[in-house]
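On clarity, I found the account of how folds are encoded harder to follow than it need be. An entry of this sort, consisting of the sequence and the corresponding backbone structure tokens, reads as follows:
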Amino acid sequence: MPNDAKRVDSRDDLLATISPKLISPGAEPKPRSIGIDMASLAKSERNAENTEEDDIIKRLDAPVLVVFELPDGSEGEKTFKLGQTVEVLKAFVEDEFEIDMSASRLYLGDEEMPDPFSLSDFPSVSPRKACVVRVAGEVPERAQKK
């Protein structure tokens, strides 16, 4: 051992001697590379999240044929997106069949469809088959089909 080398008595002394040379004051340590490009990894994680979001958006944009069974026995139909709310369906019923939106109720089978829900909230609704919705409400005389 050369004479000008310091003698290190303990591991703590070694750390105290070496660490100031490794990290400048106030600087954060850099992550060690283990053969993985950290920027690429972060980007792929973001892309995975976007892919999940994209899948949800695609699902909610899927078209669903809704067949409305009206109180007077007639039927009407329109294609909606799976993400459309019950309120949108009621607005359509009011515009198309003149059944007051605020007084109407929509039923999927025996289950009432509450306003804040969307078609996607009902497991039986699928883009693969027509969805039959029963409308309860008053049909004005002028709008009734004879």
Notes: The mean pLDDT is 79.
